[in-house]
Amino acid sequence: MVRRLFIICWTAVLAGCAVGPNFKKPEPPKVDGYTSSPVTNIDAVTNITGGEAQRFTEGADIAGDWWTLFHSQALNDLIARSLKANPNIKSAQAALQVARETVLSQNGAYYPSVAGSFSAMRDKTSAAVSPNTFSGALYYSFYTPQVAVSYTPDVFGLNRRTVESLNAQAEQQRFALAATLITLSANVVSAVVNEASLRAQIAATTNLINVNTKALGILRMQLAKGYSDRIDVAAQESQLAQLAATLPPLLKQLAQQRDALAVLVGSFPNQDPAETFDLSSLQLPQDLPLSLPSKLIEQRPDIRQAQENMRSANALVGVAVANRIPNITLTAAAGSTALSIDKLFTSGTGFWGVGGTITQPLFQGGTLLHKQRAAKAAYVQAAEQYRAAVLTAFQNVADTLNALEQDGHALQTASDAEHAAKITLDLTQKQLQVGYISYLTLIAAETAYQQAVLTLVQAQSNRYADTAALFVALGGGWWNSPDITKK
């Protein structure tokens, strides 16, 4: 009988269909580029750190460890430590495990539920009524072992749609892990570039302060001898104070950057990483990938998360529909009942029963109807969120490409300004040696040169940072990371 029940249920499942709409993957956007004008390669700026030429390769793949293209072993070591110890990675991994176990849990609904039980009872019958046993004993025991089977065939796909939704949610968590990995590695690279930039800015600012301190000393000496007036000294004092005021914020930013870097690698702020960085320790990647627009929607984890959110919402529409149609439950039980344990499973003590129930919602005050409408609205919401994610992704890539182009121009301009300021300084030093100019003119030339150096440092760091941003904007190569691609 139980075997026949299984055959009937399995036939019903095979003949059934999953109600609700089937999910259709969104089409790639019909665009052939990211920017309004064609992307061009970036020319080199000679004899400058970070001045290498950069070439775009359309359709090139992105390595899962793209940060190694900066050719800094210290950077590679920091990112390796962060991927092992950062709590955000471990949290994302645990969330993925939760989602996958939830899917496996729901898959259990495809199979019958089997439960075994054993009950033992001791009773006494009133002498004023008929006895409950053939022996007529007032005191007796009941022993009943039995196996109960319950099965809900997925005739209309309620469970299939539920599993489909949970699978989509698990995929969302997988892409969330990818996004966390990309964000973490990008944050480490950004922290390293910022540290290198801040160290160079601090050095340039310190030199500026030293130069202006010398100028103030000369003016004070001239004031004492009557060669200058008090207003010149006051002006120089004001300039020096303004320059000195710019140094503490830079030192604060450097200290905070080191604290942030320690936390990124899973350490406490007082456990300062041993590695320190300057711009010359980083090599600017020269061959840059440029993914096809049709591939970007497959590579960006945020877009893939939005797509899986659509798939989950679509499946939940089917769940809402299935909840409004009949639900079938089949049950079976078999066992034995005897007055003593040694009589169990002997002739005449066995029993069995089979049954089925069909439940059709008739009236629930519109609850199920409005839940179905809400599910459809949630799908529309998810679809628009997907579209927003696609638009944002294309904007990120376009912004980064434009930034890289302007970074090249800015670096060239800053290099030219630094070169011109250096020539001016060299000529001023020679003029001072032959007595054509005063020492204050030399101080002014040195100040202009140090300011040009400061601008150049900022232009260099922008180029490193925006190059890293391009790898992130294109998806970060997570599909080449075994820890994420494995199911």
Report the biggest beta sheet as strand number plus sense, adding barrel if it closes. Answer: 4 strands, antiparallel
Mean pLDDT: 90
Strand order of the largest sheet: 2-3-5-6
Q: Give the helix/strand class.
A: alpha+beta
Helix content: 55-70%
Radius of gyration: 37 Å
Number of helices: 10
Distance between the termini: 40 Å
Q: Let me know the number of strands.
A: 6
SS strand fraction: 5-15%
What does this entry look like structurally?
The protein has a four-stranded antiparallel β-sheet with strand order 2-3-5-6, with helices on one face. A two-stranded parallel ribbon has the order 1-4. It is of the alpha+beta class. Helix 4 runs antiparallel to helix 5 (230-264). It has ten helices and six strands. The model is unreliable at 11-15 (pLDDT under 50). The chain is elongated, with a radius of gyration of 37 Å. The chain has helices at residues 2-15, 73-85, 87-107, 158-225, 230-264, 293-299, 301-322, 367-433, 439-473, 482-485, and strands spanning 55-58, 113-124, 139-151, 287-290, 327-336, 350-359.
